[in-house]
Amino acid sequence: MKSQYIGILIMSAVLAGCGGSVSVTDPLATAPKVIIDSDFNTMGDDGQLFAMTTQLMGEGKVNLLGLCVVTGNDWLIQEEADALKAVERMGVQNVVGVYGGADYPLQYNLASIRAQQAANPQGYFGAWSRPEPTEQSQLVAPSDGFAVSTKLQAQSAADFMIQTIKRYPNQVTILEVGPPTNLATAIMKAPEIVPLIKQIVYMGGAMAVPGNANAVAELNWWFDPLAVRTVLQTTIPQSDIPLDVTNTVPLTQTVYNEIVNNPNKQTAVTKAYAVANAGAFAENTDLYDTLTIAYFMDPTYATQTKSAYLDIDTTAGEDQGHVTVYPDQPASGASPQKITYVTQFDNNRFFSLYVDLLTRPVPITLP
């Protein structure tokens, strides 16, 4: 991509020297701007979201400004390695930087976490379910290997968010698909960015269904409920894809086969998808983070929504991460404005988009 721009600039200089003139513009300048803030994985829901978003970037429909990473599904150092490979796999390593963020939640009680794990043996507790790696030799390589040359950006995820939001006031949407520790850190460090953020689209929380971590909480919001509460209490426009709707969007064998077993559409993405999701449909796996990009591009993918004031329990224990929904009047500590959350999705339309974007040629061609 950089070489393309250099070529354009050289041609501009030549034409200018000959008495001609051209206008050099970024082909993505007018595309909706997003930052993905993710507890990244190779080709689970976070990796799928990244592949889909970069394919839309190739169409000029979205401008992905950066990929921020936070501990959640796995520990930060493992997620960073997966994310660095992902940008190389998609061919966007020169235009989409990977920014390392928070290794731990803003607030956590390890004894309580262990007690919750014991009380909820079928619960999903992400990084807390495995030892934290401390060096590269302990990392698990993606199925197609580690990144060859791409390095982590020196700037932290929170600082990148602050700088980028100030650079593009009222233009940046945050796709918040992990614990929002990085975003909360940015807001606490630079509260002046709050009125400059266009919107947040989350995948997180459980409004009226059981949790997938402890009995009442979804992992992303359970992992750092204080960060969630910090962001909910701002005036940033926010919408959410909660567990309530993701529970109704299952990965079926048919969809899996359409992505993995089409002989005419074998790519690095479909091969990594096959490894990461083999048998997932047999385990009643649902789709999560990928719904955010569809909803962001076109909110009519949501066929039913509700709006309410939201609060979250930040105390350690079996109520950690529990979301309280106030349909009419907010209680003290709840969000100061109503937040829209999705309760029903257009599955057929979504799966058409999902399969299409995940089976397109790789690496992408940028406009």
UniProtKB/TrEMBL annotation:
Record-level Gene Ontology MF annotations: purine nucleosidase activity
Gene Ontology BP annotations: purine nucleoside catabolic process
Domain Inosine/uridine-preferring nucleoside hydrolase: 34-351
Keyword terms of this UniProt record: Glycosidase, Hydrolase
GO cellular component: cytosol
Entry-linked SUPFAM superfamilies: Nucleoside hydrolase
Pfam families associated with the record: IU_nuc_hydro
Matches recorded under InterPro entries: Inosine/uridine_hydrolase_dom, IUNH, Ribo_hydro-like
Top-level taxon of the source organism: Bacteria
Protein name: Inosine-uridine nucleoside N-ribohydrolase
Originating species: Paraburkholderia phenazinium
Native organism taxonomy: Bacteria, Pseudomonadati, Pseudomonadota, Betaproteobacteria, Burkholderiales
